[in-house]
Amino acid sequence: MTEEVETHEDRATWPAVRNGWRRRCPNCGSGPMLSGYLKVRDHCPVCREELFHHRADDGPAYLTILVVGHIMAPMLHVAFVTWRPEPLTLFTLFAVGTIGLSLYLLPRFKGAMVGFQWARGMHGFSGGN
């Protein structure tokens, strides 16, 4: 009696997350993952890996808010206590910094989350192709 076991392809998690952070395909690392600012392609144009299985949803936004809040809030406190700038100056600087950092981090967190899901075989990213 032979026992057939379906094997799941072992995928390295951290390289896939790094490729996702760079907004590249988690499989080949060279094809672009995103077709717009946050729109994930259906498949990689280089290696043809299917990417439409992702379920990033609100995760990247939550991570962005968490990181930006933990960076900007202490900086706001230090800047206010140390230099006592005018309120409008303080607001302007930190509003621009917060928006800029958020716009930088959001697509990178989305790519990293898709890369993580791909590496772990979550949500239809099975290794059986």
Automatic annotation (TrEMBL):
It comes from the Bacteria. InterPro entries: DUF983. Keywords: Membrane, Transmembrane, Transmembrane helix. The chain crosses the membrane at residues 61-82, 88-106. This is Uncharacterized protein (DUF983 family). It comes from Allosediminivita pacifica.
